[in-house]
Amino acid sequence: MELADAGELGFDAERLARIDGFLQERYIDTGRLPCAQILVAREGHPVHYAHFGTLREDGTPMREDALFRIASMTKPVTSIAFMQLVEQCRVALEDPVTRVFPEFADLAVYAGGGGSVPFAPGTPAPPMRFVDLLTHMSGFTYGLQNRTNIDALYREENLDFARDHLDSDAYVAKLARLPLEFAPGTGWNYSVSTDVLGIAVERLSGMRLGDYLAEHVFGPLGMTDTAFGAGDAGADRLADAYAYRPGKPPRMVDAGATSRLNRPGTFDSGGGGLVGTIADYQRFATMLANGGALDGARIVSPKTLHLMRTNHLPGGADLTQVSRSLFSESHNAGTGFGLGFAMVIDPARTLMPASEGEFYWGGAYSTAFFVDPVEDVTMVFMTQLYPSSAYPVRRQLKTLIYAALTHSNA
Predict the structure, then answer these.
(1) What superkingdom heads the lineage (predicted)?
(2) Which of 11, 139, 329, 346 has the fewest Cβ atoms within 10 angstroms?
(3) pLDDT digit string (tens) for 139-163?
(4) Over the stretch 210-253, which tens digit does the pLDDT of each residue have?
(5) Cβ–Cβ contacts within 10 Å for residue 215, how many?
């Protein structure tokens, strides 16, 4: 990968090199992570890139064009796609979701029961709006939260992983029968909301989500290696995925060579289904840093993107004040949430170097990215270890990156 001169862009190259030694010694040599790639850029120019570990359990070396399960880093992509339709006035953030999903007309808020006891009749839910889906204030949940009886039912219905057993309409039909955790707009819970948002893109556009993204996001941005699955052409590049085991080496849970991701699925998960390369996601991150455009392709307007990366939590709260979920994507202090992104609203409360307005997200396999509009810095990090809460590698990488700055715009 061609790199710009780090010094000319306000970085100390020797300090950036600390990232490599840290990842190699702390995570790769110890077996904590099977592989890693990191790409740091400023003003749209890559200044540091490195890769580590192996692509496959058999020792196949890591390669620059490796494909990774980016999981919830799919969510910002789906959110951008939905906001394209908002810009065209085909839908509005304040619209009730029943405009697109009549199946949700009779949603109710949980009032008791579950497991061996039937659910109690719930209180009719107030209208859910599309903004509630974007902000995870819908009242939906994830089975992986593993906290409540509703989470258990999501696991029973396998709603977190619908790729091979449901289509979009069947997915919505199942959700419509389940109670909400809370009334829409009254709490924050990390959830399948963005999967529902992706189905809204399908219904509004008349296109399957993967086809819509290929035409309106990936194609214009030159993201040629990102899709809902690796397919035959990418099967030899898909990294193995692993699960964390306390005190033991990670266990391989999905071999790249035989993964179901090499075969077409029935459901495009807008909340977590994309596979892609670090170079592709860097193009997406650069578009975000540029205010919605890259190389002449305008994806969304600067004002739309500014709305998306503004905190929408009630009263300007952070996630420690409104979150009801077991949330492993970040430390919540000083963190707000917008329309598809988390953002730093109080750098001091995060207890780490940060810029106000910096926005970011991550995936369940420990992938991560951030965009700092103040410093014009982006980072994309790829690995394949579930869950993302296993190690504090994201905070460590941010610390190392900001420690390498020699010129700040703040």
Answers:
(1) Bacteria
(2) 346
(3) 999 998 888 899 999 999 999 999 9
(4) 999 999 999 999 999 999 999 888 889 999 999 999 999 999 99
(5) 12
